[in-house]
Amino acid sequence: MSEKREVRFAGIELRASGDGKMVIQGRPAVYNSLSKDLGGFREVLVPGCFDESLDDPEIYCAWNHDNSQILGRVSAGTLQLSSDSIGLAMRCELPNSPLGQNVYQSIKRADVNKMSFGMFVDQDAWDVATDERGQKYERRNVKRARIFECSPVTTPAYDSSSISARALFPDGAPVRKPASVVGVDERTLAALRSRLELAKRK
Predict the structure, then answer these.
(1) pTM for this prediction
(2) pLDDT at res. 109
(3) Are 122 and 144 in contact, with CB atoms under 8 Å apart?
(4) Contact (Cβ atoms closer than 8 angstroms) between residue 114 and residue 160
(5) E strand residue ranges, the chain
(6) Which positions ≥6 away from 103 have C-beta within 8 Å?
(7) Tens of pLDDT along 1-42?
(8) How many C-beta atoms surround the C-beta of residue 146 within 10 A?
(9) To 10 degrees, the CA torsion angle through 106, 107, 112, 117?
(10) Is-contact 7 170, C-beta < 8 A?
(11) Dist CA 161 CA 36 (whole Å)
């Protein structure tokens, strides 16, 4: 299993619960949604890719990826994550502390309206796809991954014009697997060589 941390960014929503608790909720990740350029390739999360990791009690929600500013944790029952056909859904009950109150007010005022999640990718598949302009690009399909945190963030690199490799891949960019080589038998290879020789003589 990979131990390389990878970070991605998405939108966030806020909804206050009826019992007066400070609760934020949203979708940290959306399936089948093509990412922006992540540094020479784009990425798609395959539906259900996080399902095997959602019961991990150590998944936490932090402010701006700072694990010294914890907002909620699965083991404490203050953070819930679930997966459906759309993607991941997150609900976090913020602490009644200066940090929790500040985060809640910032999101409620829409001063902060983005969030991020961190993952370890255990299985992926690379291919070449074509975008809406007919341009080919490398695509990484994340098939199985473990989410370890989600965070409201003030400056998400994912929405900037230039992608920060340090922000997206703290432990180094993923290794791109080369395209599979198509096998050619000796007879076909000989025919291709003959055609090449004829082309050179013309």
Answers:
(1) 0.77
(2) 85
(3) yes
(4) no
(5) 5-11, 13-14, 23-30, 42-45, 60-63, 66-73, 79-83, 87-93, 114-130, 136-153
(6) 24, 63, 71, 94, 112, 152
(7) 778 999 887 766 666 665 678 999 888 888 998 888 888 899
(8) 19
(9) 130
(10) yes
(11) 10
The residue among 134, 149, 129, 136 whose CA lies nearest residue 50 is 149
Reading phi first (left if > 0) and then psi (alpha if -120 to 50, else beta), residue 78 is in: alpha
Look up residue 76 and give its two tokens.
């404490």
- Reduce the DSSP state of residue 108 to 3 states and report it: helix
Under a CB-based contact definition with an 8 Å cutoff, are residues 12 and 92 in contact?
A: no
Regarding beta strands 60-63 and 136-153, do their DSSP bridges make them parallel or antiparallel, or are they unpaired?
A: parallel
d(CA 164, CA 111): 22
Instruction: Write down the residue that tokens 């014009």 correspond to.
Output: 161
Query: For residue 1, what are its two tokens?
Result: 């299993």
- What is the chain's alpha carbon radius of gyration, rounded to the nearest angstrom? 22
* Tokens read off for 72: 């909620």
Report pLDDT digits (tens) over 40-63: 899 999 999 999 999 999 999 999
Beta pairing class for 114-130 and 5-11: antiparallel
